[in-house]
Amino acid sequence: MDSLKARKTMVDRHVRARGVRDPRVLAAMGTVPREAFLPPELAEYAYDDRPLPISSGQTISQPYIVAVMAEALALRPDERVLEIGTGSGYAAAVLAQVAGRVYTVERIEELATLARSRLVALGYRNVDVHLGDGTLGWREHAPYDAIVVAAGGPELPRALLDQLIVGGRLVMPVGDGRAQELVRVTRVGSDEYRRDELGAVQFVPLIGEQGWADDEAVPRAPRGTIPRRSVGTLVSPSPVTRTGTVAKLIAECAEPIARIEDAPLDALLDRIGDAKVVLLGEATHGTSEFYRMRTRITQELIRRKGFTSIAVEADWPDAAAVDRYIRGDRPVERAWVPFTRFPTWMWRNAETHQLVEWLRAHNRETGANVSFSGLDLYSMYTSAFEVVRYLERVDPLAARAARERYGRLTPWEHDPAAYGRAALLSRMASCEHDVVAMLRELLAKRIQYSAQDGDEFFDAAQNARVVAGAEQYYRAMYYGSVESWNLRDQHMFDTLRAIASHRGADSKLIVWEHNSHVGDAAATEMAARGEHNVGHLCREAYGDDVFVVGFGTDHGTVAAAHAWDEPMECMQVRPARADSYERLCHMTNVPAFLLHLRDPVRDTLGDELSEPRLERAIGVIYRPDTELASHYFQAVLPSQFDEYIWFDETSAVTPLPHAAQAAAPSRHPLLR
Ligand code: SAM
User: Fold this and answer.
1) Catalytic residue (one of 3, 61, 190, 580)
2) Residue nearest ligand 1's atom 24 by CA
3) Percent of the chain with pLDDT over 70
4) 103 CB under 6 A from ligand 1?
5) Model-level pTM?
6) 554 in a domain, yes or no?
């Protein structure tokens, strides 16, 4: 999108649609090129409605807030306005389009110099930039028709009130270091002011003689107050700028992890309490620390809380091969080697291998019968093959019918997505009826079949469900991503329920899936798109009986591919964005920790973290060059997860080669 178009979209979506009406403010917002006020590497985000970092640890304000403040000043074209906090110079340029002359003061020399040269280069002749303490105003040019302060102070600076003409307006965020109220004061007489409150905001601190001291977080003693009078409230203004304070709070509440292998988990297990379902996330599909920590937690849940089943974001037939291996009651020979479909490294890795070996040993040594299952629906063809193989053993006639019905899907075996397109274009191509009939008939013979082996019947029925689900999924792909996403997560949730019911009333489930599946979708921007997920469906179904753990990282390496079906690479993870939850965790300087997000005693932390921020999700594909668009989404962390586990620096998983198969001592499914 070109800059003009992006600007127009930003104004329509984030400024006009949210209630800013002043046509001159809207025109100015549509004219000033915000990218010219940003460091070049952030130019691509210029028309996102959010504050962005500039140099000296400061921020360029959120466009919506710039517009709200400009509108609140009610400027006429010939008026003179004083701005405190030049920052990048962007708001000054907007004001210069609306007013006659702009005087702007910045306390940081680097910013003042840069803003001055930018404004000159862009041809703004009616803006003067001054280096100094803006809490004292700029006496030389006073009085002003309007004053706007782009930083939060403990009170209205007396000097600024004095420099307003009678009838003049001052707009400023006032409050403590944590949150402020956007206040508009109108000077109605020589010593008379009217005060309106416009809504909650968050700004960087106003540092100076009549603001905050450079190193303090407490207000100076008030010097005279202005009578309060409230009007309306702004909807969701949210510049996030106090990362340091919030990071400190996180550090205070964090439970540090020195080594994964002996991380103390007692407190976490207490918090999990009697939950029957524990969802363990991951922020990427290729980070060793996430696998190893989930293994630790899984082991403790099995050993100390009697969890009976693990269900992972993998194909049913692949996971079933592992299940046979760890429960050891049925042979593991298969016609194919599990987890050889892209993305192979997601489960065919040394970390999963360790878990699998531990599960097998645990089942053998303790007589436990912990199961391992796959939740996903990408195995349309291998699942169809498994159903046929099963029927060949128990009902050869039905096997013939299955071959015929599933055989209609074979033209698309190497490109199942193309099946959806074909089914849409020609009703003849649709196999919906066949796969649904197959499932129905299989389930109808449940009693007859499962008399022979309950587990085997369940396996076959689940494979038939996968074929039916996948058929529907590939057709839905052509209606849009929301439909197919919802179908997939619904299938994974239904599979979870099926496992729970198959394993009996005492079953307790551990789920390993990406954060985007296990974190409650209602707490993320997915909800606005109409998407649900496993985490959300579990919360609805299990209430307090489900406990959700999210994982995060700042930087390091990750196993991922640049595009679907491309080879795995060990890629560098970029340090997290300044406006993300990850940055907050990084700033704690605690290399790894557990963070409980639902502790009522720590409601201050909950409040702080409840402001929506960006969160990063790396899948099997990682595109560092377009990270913001490809990998970040808005979320409210404490509503998304019950617990968050942080590893500041992480490393890629170790993929297992297929070549080790021949040497495998016990036909380990991952080593064949
Ligand atoms: N209006 C700016 C823009 O469009 O880029 C953003 C302003 S930024 C949120 C706040 C700015 O206020 C920072 O650049 C900070 O250095 C500045 N500031 C803080 N205290 C100040 C003071 N006493 N005088 C002048 N500037 C101050």
Assistant:
1) 61
2) 134
3) 89
4) no
5) 0.63
6) yes
